[in-house]
Amino acid sequence: MSFQNKKFTLTRAEKKDTADIEKIMKSGSFSGGIEIQYLRGDDPLASFEKEGTESYIYILREKEHGEAVGMGGCIVRPALVNGKIKRAGSIRQKEKERPGISGNQRLFPRYAAGRGADGEGI
């Protein structure tokens, strides 16, 4: 997937990305005394797949060193929308906490989640 910023690559997550996904999910903190637990187990991709009928999980890497800095995607499942069962997506996104970067300087493009390998939206 292309970016205006040429420092990053976005690819569909694979089994080999498991450790990086876990590291990203466990990074960071929240204000207000909220603690986050990582409950995806040893295979986060399988865990995401169990949440719906389809899952599109992507990993964002910094090109120079290959470091994983974000992950996100879309879990698709049937949902009741305006009284009818429709195909609906739930967006997931998490960036690795980085010193000096505020919340409004996000790396992960919001438009990327929920696109198939061919770049088409779900």
- The secondary-structure element order is EHHEEE
Distance between the termini: 16 Å
Total count of strands: 4
Low-pLDDT regions? 101-106, 108-122
Query: How does the overall form come out from the CA principal axes?
Result: globular
- In this structure, how is the largest beta sheet organized? 4 strands, antiparallel
The chain-level structural class is alpha+beta
The proportion of strand residues reads 25-35%
Helix content: 10-25%
Mean pLDDT: 75
In DSSP terms, counting alpha (H) and pi (I) runs of 4 or more, how many helices? 2
**Global Rg:** 15 Å
Strand order of the largest sheet: 1-2-3-4
Could you characterize the architecture of this molecule?
- This protein has helices at 18-26, 44-50; strands at 8-12, 54-62, 68-81, 84-95.
- By secondary structure, the protein is of the alpha+beta class.
- Strands 1-2-3-4 form a 4-stranded antiparallel beta sheet.
- β3 (68-81) and β4 form a beta hairpin.
- The longest helix has 9 residues, at 18-26.
- Residues 101-106 and 108-122 have low confidence and may be disordered.
In short:
The protein is α+β, with helices and mostly antiparallel strands.
List the SSEs and their pairings.
Elements: E1 8-12, H1 18-26, H2 44-50, E2 54-62, E3 68-81, E4 84-95
Antiparallel strand pairs: 1-2, 2-3, 3-4
